[in-house]
Design a protein that fits this description.
- There is one protein chain.
- With 144 residues, the protein is α/β, with parallel strands linked by helices.
- The chain contains 6 helices and 5 strands.
- α1 links the parallel β1 and β2.
């Protein structure tokens, strides 16, 4: 399995901890995020992750910024992306079970690193339930 990860200046510490966890699980990681605390524009780091997920170059993505709102909004512009903003493992379970989310968005300013790692673990180990949920997902994509 390969996961793309991206972050802005609010998330380098989170990213490094999550990458270490993923590597301990024998998961390959593609790092598209900044390694610096210097201010950057989050879309510059979201687009490579969302594109990789959208084009099935990786199985999942993880995005980290201060509130995770901006990264989620940007990622969800891609047709095959379902990015969910989460701050608890219970919400993570629901975005996987009900929405078949393929990108996890973590708000660094509202979670702790151990909590973020627990959310990543939940994200990777929760299956999509399908059924009526698939019918709803099929209605998400804008048909113009």
């Amino acid at each position: 399995m390969t996961i793309a990860i991206g972050n802005d200046h609010a998330g380098p510490d989170y990213k490094f901890a999550i990458m270490e966890y993923l590597k301990s699980q024998n998961i390959d990681v593609v790092n598209y995020g900044t390694d610096s605390l210097d201010s950057v524009d989050y879309p510059d780091f979201v687009h490579p992750v969302a594109s990789a997920v959208n084009d099935s170059k990786v199985e999942f993505g993880i995005l980290i910024c201060g509130s995770a709102n901006g990264v989620a909004m940007t990622a969800n512009k891609y047709a095959n992306v379902r990015a969910g903003l989460c701050w608890t493992k219970e919400i993570v379970s629901l975005i996987r079970q009900h929405n078949n989310a393929n990108i996890l968005c973590i708000p660094a300013r509202f979670t702790a690193i151990p909590q973020a790692i627990e959310m990543v673990n939940t994200f990777l180990n929760t299956e999509f339930e399908g059924g009526r949920h698939q019918d709803r997902i099929d209605k998400i994509h804008l048909k113009c």
